[in-house]
User: Which sequence fits this backbone?
């Protein structure tokens, strides 16, 4: 089913079938201001998939945006930094100047978050920067600070996994769906050369993450990982990783430590 995006270019037309004004507090109404049809489609699908009672309107310039702000009064506006007829920052400034819009949250879709622009509104949380506008999880995380997402009863936050010596955790080329923290035991990572011989890449010890890079680069597994000893791991689905890390500072430190160690090894290999 295609998402229900509403685009009204003629303000003389009525908006039948949609709640106008501020009366329906249960309705999650969004306004996307962008000239990128693909982005509008992706954002609309992501919003409707993750938030209840969702209606999405869109426009590409201030004339359309102003009309919909006044008549639909969305809970949140998503604005592209670059628009066909000007700057998204100009539209954000206009929205902020109107007191009637004081309760509307603003998400600026920009690959670079310039917090010096609208710094007071960023500090208060009213304005956010979405630096990965084409990634659904990033979109949901931004909007979730404004509106609670649908409850996900199917995906656990994390679970324990145990391996015996020689068990393979994942193989090179596998789709990346889960990251792990090693609680006990050790594992080895390796890849295979053109002859099928194993090329050892390193050992993974307790307190380290494994498989986390797939979460960041959205690519298949770059190596095979197997248990050397009996191993106990915490398995965290990629969809939960950001929230879990945010809620558990010790796990965030483990992630930073792991990435730092990997960087040191890579630098040593390049200079050694």
Assistant:
């Amino acid at each position: 089913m295609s998402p229900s995006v509403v685009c009204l270019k003629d303000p003389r037309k009525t908006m039948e079938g949609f709640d106008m004004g501020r009366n329906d507090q249960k309705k999650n109404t969004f306004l996307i201001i962008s000239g990128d049809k693909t982005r509008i489609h992706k954002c609309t699908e992501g919003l409707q998939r993750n938030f209840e009672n969702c209606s999405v309107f869109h426009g590409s310039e201030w004339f359309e945006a102003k009309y919909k702000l006044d008549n639909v009064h969305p809970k949140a506006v998503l604005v592209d930094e670059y628009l066909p007829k000007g700057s998204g920052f100009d539209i954000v400034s206009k929205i902020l100047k109107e007191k009637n819009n004081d309760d509307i949250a603003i998400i600026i879709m920009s690959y670079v978050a310039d917090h010096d622009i609208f710094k007071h509104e960023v500090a208060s949380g009213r304005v956010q920067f979405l630096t990965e506008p084409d990634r659904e999880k990033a979109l949901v995380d931004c909007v979730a600070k404004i509106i609670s997402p649908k409850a996900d009863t199917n995906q656990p936050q994390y679970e324990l996994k145990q391996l015996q010596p020689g068990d393979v955790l994942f193989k090179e080329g596998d789709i990346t769906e889960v990251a792990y923290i090693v609680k006990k035991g050790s594992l080895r990572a390796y890849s295979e050369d053109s002859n099928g011989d194993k090329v050892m890449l390193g050992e993974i010890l307790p307190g380290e993450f494994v498989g986390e890079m797939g979460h960041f680069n959205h690519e298949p597994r770059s190596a095979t990982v197997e248990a050397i000893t009996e191993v106990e791991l915490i398995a965290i689905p990629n969809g939960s990783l950001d929230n879990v890390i945010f809620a558990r500072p010790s796990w965030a430190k483990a992630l930073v430590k792991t990435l730092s160690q990997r960087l040191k090894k890579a630098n040593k290999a390049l200079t050694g």
Remarks:
- The radius of gyration is 23 Å.
- The helical segments are 37-50, 62-71, 88-97, 119-124, 136-144, 213-217, 238-247, 249-271.
- The CA atoms of residues 9 and 63 lie 9 Å apart.
- The first helix runs from residue 37 to 50.
